[in-house]
What does this fold into?
Amino acid sequence: MSTTTVANHEEHHDHPTGIMRWLTTTNHKDIGTMYLTFSLVMFLVGGSMILGIRAELFKPGLQLMNPDFFNQLIGVHALIMIFAALMPAATGFANWMIPLQIGAPDMALPRLNNWGFWLLPPSAILLTLPFTLAMFGIGDGALATGWTFYPPLSVQGGIGVDFAIFAVHLLGISSVMGSINIIVTLFNMRAPGMTLMKMPMFAWGWLITAFLLVATIPVLAGAVTMLLTDRHFGTHFFDAAGGGDPIMFQHLFWFFGHPEVYILLLPVWGFIPQILQTFSRKPMYGYKAQVYSLWAIGALAVVVWAHHFFTAGMPVPALLYFMYSTMAISLPLAVLFFCWIKTMWKGSMTFETPMLFAVGWIILFGIGGLTGLVLADVAADAQYHNSYFVVAHFHYTLFAGGIMGIMAGVYYWLPKMTGNMYDEKLGKWHFWLTAISFNLTFIPQFFVGLAGMPRRIPDYALQFAEFNMISSIAAFALGLSQLLFVYVIIKCVKGGKKATDKVWEGAEGLEWTLSSPPPYHSFTEQPIIK
Amino acid sequence: MEDKELARRSRNKKIALIFGAIAVIWYVLSMFTIWNL
It folds into this structure.
């Protein structure tokens, strides 16, 4: 790809300063920064909740908290990590990078963009406020149903469930608005000459993510709205005592819940190949194959939902359909893995921090994917279901596959965003500490899960004690390692060696043609792609 | 503002409205599935 015009680097200062800049901004980079900062803060909040859980699980018996509070921490940890940490991080990158990558001056709908972000802080408050209220004797704490809101527990639960239902509505509105903005931007704001099949892979990943969000978030919103009417307006949609069907809630929830996994992963599958090509110094392998595979995964994502509750009971043909369709996802995913590895093959590879995270990501996310295949097997799932094996599997998928991928993106684009190079030595320390402590946390959970330890319990049988102790110690090491991540980011934002415009020797794409950091208004003259 | 830019902004709004309408209709429809399945 080459451009015939260089972007206008002239700075404009016709925007408010101080707090008003952040409250009223419609600039995609400002909003991207706010999303990323919000995500980092919520990542630490959600992470500290799970450290409370791991402290309780350090040894058998009840030590630190009552079982109800334990359940509350589990549910809110998941909701925060999914909706307030991972999704906003991906949206932050989308805001920052999509206009820069497609040569657009900003997102298509800047005011909608601002609104989308500012719905997030109230949602986070709604999710966590019940903890504080309970301290003053109001209500009985946050939702204790797990993040899945399954009835009848959620119909019977306290005000924490109502707070979470409203939070999910707000988060859903924010996500749908963000998705619409991204779809419009990618359809209508691309630089002249940038056809769809010339878009960077990150843009493709996000386009499919945005479609998935528009297709699935309304269904989640519908399900929790009905839950709300069951709780307060006398309906019995999910209440078996009134003729309702609790399994129907599971169908509606997972119609959203399974695509949600891909919503969290597709943006990462977009920028990881870009990182691999940059640090392998050769073109991305199989661009078209990757795009078609992303589409295939996006399409399959919405037709496999019931594998999350095989044991709830369904007809055998349905079991077989959901098993085979789930397993079919491994085919396009295998194509992606092949393309990622082939991109590195015989390249002039160097292992700066983003590349370390990207390569580590391939291996660890691979483990997440392969253990998912095991869970997709109906016969085997009867043993694994609701065990710690599932917990370990989805943390390999969502912590390694999601968060470590996001970290690769942070190190890759941080110099471009801030204009300063981060501390490479500390970045590498962060990678190794994270990778080692992550594996030490979750490998033991595969073992205890296989041996029959159920998830979401504060107490367990004695034979699981040693593995749980290892897992808890490693979880604290993993948590502490993330403070190093925060330090590296703050240090980079404050100063450091100046980054060049291109930053990385092998970097390709329009974002690298702008200065580091890019001017407040980027691409005031549209570049033309040949 | 150029006509071309105005036309683009108008197209932006149209595409956004289409997807917004899809999301709202889908939200309402999802609540009706409960009686049909």
